[in-house]
Amino acid sequence: MNLSIKAVLFFIWVAANSSCSQQSRIMNADSGIPDTTYKNVVEIQDRNVVSDGINFLFDYPIPAKSTHPVLFISSKIPSDLLDGLYPEFQRLTIITPNWKFYAEHKGSRTGEPIASSVIYNLNRENEKLVKDSLVIMGGFPKMNIIAAGEEATTLKVYFTEQYGSICCPRDAKWDLKPSLKEFVADFELKNKVKIKDSYLENAGEEGEVNYYYTLNGLSDKLRLQFIVERTVQTRNMKAADFKAKIYTPTEVNLSNRLKKLRD
């Protein structure tokens, strides 16, 4: 049985997502994987990912100067969570193993399934997501993978909380209970940890301010716990109503505008 017949018999691509426009295609290795070499690809491996069983946290920030990042996510991540990945970028390409295909044919009497991958191209424009996907039966695209790492002139920030005007009109976040300071103190006490390397940035003439937390001093699991718990609080939600999400750090340039908070 040749690859093209296998592709028809073994794979059904489900293109269903009411929140975005999506187009899907299937290509066999016999007919040629796209003659493109993806350059400067960042690989997200198991060691770059932590999960609480629902949400996920990646430990790699993509430099802000990137215009169209390309990721190869070799770790097994639910595909329905990829749409919200690195939301600060308008365009994003994500390459993954075809986990759905592998799961469907695990333990098949025909032996191990052929190699298969999926390429997702995300384009976020005017608050609308357009997602195209290409399923490759028989292999993976060509990739030049770079080592993950951040520049020395930037901070790897896992959590940001922004406050608007203190007066005109007053941003409701200023009246949140517990306050950010109270939440941090309680989190440290409850988990017997000390959160280090946090920064404040004055962002306007009416008291606007940004808080940047590297969450140094915490394990990756505690970083994820911190982010989820505080996000639930600031949105005034019940934890049970909070949808699963992948959280990713961002890069913030070190400058004189940043004031380090006392550890």
Summary, kept brief:
This protein has 263 residues and is α/β, with parallel strands linked by helices. The chain has helices at residues 3-10, 99-104, 180-191, 220-234; strands at residues 20-28, 37-44, 49-51, 56-58, 70-73, 91-97, 116-125, 128-137, 142-146, 154-157, 159-163, 196-202, 209-216, 246-247, 250-253, 258-260.
Which helices and strands appear, and what pairs or packs with what?
Layout: H1 3-10, E1 20-28, E2 37-44, E3 49-51, E4 56-58, E5 70-73, E6 91-97, H2 99-104, E7 116-125, E8 128-137, E9 142-146, E10 154-157, E11 159-163, H3 180-191, E12 196-202, E13 209-216, H4 220-234, E14 246-247, E15 250-253, E16 258-260
Parallel strand pairs: 1-8, 2-5, 2-9, 4-14, 5-6
Antiparallel strand pairs: 3-4, 6-7, 7-8, 10-15, 11-13, 12-13, 12-16
* Number of strand segments: 16
Helix content: 10-25%
> What's the helix count?
4
Rounded to an integer in angstroms, the radius of gyration calculated over CA atoms is 21 Å
Strand percentage, roughly?
25-35%
Strand order of the largest sheet: 1-8-7-6-5-2-9
Decide which structural class fits the backbone.
Answer: alpha/beta
Q: What overall form do the CA principal axes indicate?
A: elongated
Q: Round the mean pLDDT to the nearest integer and report it.
A: 83
Determine the N-to-C terminus distance: 64 Å
Residue windows where pLDDT falls under 50 for at least 5 positions:
1-19, 29-33
Characterize the biggest β-sheet. 7 strands, mixed
Taken together, the total number of domains comes to 2
* Order of H and E elements: HEEEEEEHEEEEEHEEHEEE
